[in-house]
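User: What would this chain look like folded?
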Amino acid sequence: MKNKIVSLLSIIFGIMIISFPLLGVVSSSAIIGLSVLFISIFALMMGISIIDYNKYGAITDLILGVVLLLISIGLIFNPAIFSFLAEISLYLAGIILIIAGVVSLVNNRSSKYGFYIGIAGIILGVCYIVIGSYVADPIILGTLIGIWLIFSGIMRLLK
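Assistant: Here's the prediction, encoded as structure tokens.
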């Protein structure tokens, strides 16, 4: 039951993050902050859902979730942090996707689709960094995070 809820929330968050850039109302800081917030919520939910059978993986997810939560709050509510991180924020989001992919890869070794979720996070994180180097469009970058969340949710549902 927990896995289905986490999967559905991941899909919903993915759709939301893809939709927000299309609205064009939210600034780059808020979009990246919102993206990181959704990943942090996903990491916290994963940490809670796997705590019964994978203590180290759960602790890793919970720590990652708390760190990402703090970063996302800073990005959303404090524009000074965004201006400080403006040059590295694109790389930061890509690195966060790569880390989330590696954590998913490690935590879901026994899952049928866990490997694919982790690999997708790593590949999309690398794409995020590469695309972010050439295109500073938050619509494209936010969409990559949304794609990973939707893919992760679907793969977890197929489990």
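The chain has six helices and no strands. If you want, I can go into more detail on any region.
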